[in-house]
Amino acid sequence: MAEEQTELEERIIIKDQHTKEIDLVNRDPKHINEDVVKVDFEDVIAEPVGTYSFDGVWKASYTTFTVSKYWCYRLLSAILGIPLAVLWGFLFALISFCHIWAVVPCIKSYLIEIQCVSRIYSLCIHTFCDPLFEALSKICSNIRVALRKEI
């Protein structure tokens, strides 16, 4: 009975990962586009003091800018959003696939090979260099340096 309950919980967890609800109010919960696309009318168009257009033109410009930006974004996202989502999904699936099936195995294989090479290298260093440096240290051990100040 406990095994059936555990199996059922595992199925629910796996199902939840693929069918989780998306938040339609907060569409950027991780704030990845926080500083990128916050462009308003005041950020783009401004009239300095003394060079004002007619009030009606200013209001119509504001409305035109805001509405056209809103509807152009909606139209572009309706036309290109789904194909680009497929493209980005494919790209990230390809990156994940390459990482899982090529990059990590190559790195693990390299680490195994380099471990063998490092043992051979260490053996060569200990065999040839250690005696050489021991002999040099014994030769140089009798060297004495004396510093004198002559006035």
Break the fold down into its secondary structure elements and pairings.
Blueprint (H helix, E strand, L loop, with lengths): L1 H17 L22 H4 L10 H86 L11
In short:
By secondary structure, this protein is mainly alpha-helical.
Structure description:
The protein has helices at 2-18, 41-44, 55-140. With 151 residues, it is mostly helical. The longest helix is centred in the middle third of the chain and has 86 residues, at 55-140. The chain is flat. The chain starts with a helix and ends in an 11-residue tail after the last helix.
Low-confidence stretches: none
Give the percentage of residues in beta strands: under 5%
Helical content stands at over 70%
Number of helices: 3
Estimated radius of gyration = 35 Å
The residue-averaged pLDDT reads: 87
**Main beta sheet:** none
SSE series: HHH
The assigned structural class equals mainly alpha
Apparent shape: flat
What is the β-strand count?
Answer: 0
